[in-house]
Amino acid sequence: MSLPIISQRDLKTYQIVKTSTEYVYKSTYAPTGSSVFIKLLALAERNDRDRQTILSDVEYVSKRRSERLIEIVGIFRTPNTIGIVTEWMPNESLHSLLQQCALYPTLPLSIIIRILTDVTAGLSFLHNQRPPIMLQRLKPCNVLLDAQYRAKLSDFWLSDLQKVNFSKDQQENTSVIYLSPQRLQKHRPTTADDIYSLGIILHETLSRKQPFQEKHPLKLVTEITRGMRPQPDIDVILKETSLQHSHRTNLSQLTHLCWHQNPNMRPTAAECLSRLQNIQQNFSKEEIQFEIDSLNKGKEQPQERIMEFDIKYLDEGWLTRSRAQSVPEASTEQLSLCPETKKEKRSASLPVSVSKTNVHMPTTCPEQRAARNYGVNWTHRNVADSVPCPHLIWSVNYVETLKRNRETILNRVTEGHLNHLIDTMRSRCVLSREDSENINAERILKARTRKCLETCSEKGEEASRMFLDSLASQNTHPRNPA
């Protein structure tokens, strides 16, 4: 194998860093001194043949080098774990850029067009391989951004892992909204499926709104296969831009062709790239650099919470055991959401972003005093940490925590707090206008709060986290029943 096998000696410590969508592993690769990202694959129950298949697939794609693909640094291996070590991308993902409205109030069109061009260039490179490499999971979370907001595709090494007999949950780890009608109907994957996903990303990036938010997943599958596409129409969105009429027409046609119901009508990645490059030529390098500098200068620094661990614990306990095996019995007791609250007799549960990406997150971690015995260094970089936190019954994730404390929250939330929370979530694109209207349609405060709780639970981890964080920031202290 030509890829370096990275050992614990090469990665002295690792950090768990919270991004906009999940907790990720960050470390420093000792030979180069550069920051790296560790993507762990859960293989404790896989046989040697399955593991070798994965290594062969990663080895194959790692030899296909492109500036628009995330660089694979090496393979991190332990007896129970295989991790893919890649370069670290400091500006997170396209999803972060689009969804963090408070952090990025406005997005320059020049940067947006360049990101879309980069994505298409990476896709064209993969499709031009013999045989073609199909991404099969193209979505904003897998479009990573470097310090200059240049985009690189990630997770392309996982495209052939379907051959390994993973569980159903692990196979269906791609969001429905980015899947083509053919994929939803279980047809054999083709490069045209990636082009469909590109069309959805074009619309989402230009509108800065995730499509089909109000649709139920089960109904969504049926409606997409029947021809439903994101709204508003791309022409309406493009009218608000400064693009010339000819380029607006070109971009509109490209979007509609990419998500065409007939896969044979969809353009190739190379054709998409040619069109986007033609539009990008309208923006000079100097203009793009000016916008990048303005974006970095104007945005607020993200509130970052980092937990640093000794690298040997990456395999010994937290990351290779299920919650049932690793959570102490005392974890069912009431826990404080404030990380600075002192615990004297038991471990604290780490907020976990539950996903289906084969990446294992720690389900428990020691409290600060005991952590020193485990080689753990806690670093908090969140101004909200100093705000008094409500004492709730903490669960495995934010959604479940919200559900478990439903009655307590209903009895304590005030009119002003709820109005402020809804306004904040609307400004950050977490709630849609229809969501807020449905909440405000309720006449009684408790009914409005109940509707907001239900909506946040349906939206998932980010919305639920914002609700719980607002309890601390508004100094609302639900009291546990005696």
Automatic annotation (TrEMBL):
Residues 400-471 form the CARD domain. It comes from the Eukaryota. One of its GO terms (biological process) is regulation of apoptotic process. GO terms for molecular function: ATP binding; JUN kinase kinase kinase activity. InterPro entries: CARD, DEATH-like_dom_sf, Kinase-like_dom_sf, Prot_kinase_dom, Ser/Thr_Kinases-Pseudokinases. Residues 10-283 form the Protein kinase domain. SUPFAM superfamilies: DEATH domain, Protein kinase-like (PK-like). PROSITE patterns: CARD, PROTEIN_KINASE_DOM. It holds the Pfam family CARD. This is Protein kinase domain-containing protein.
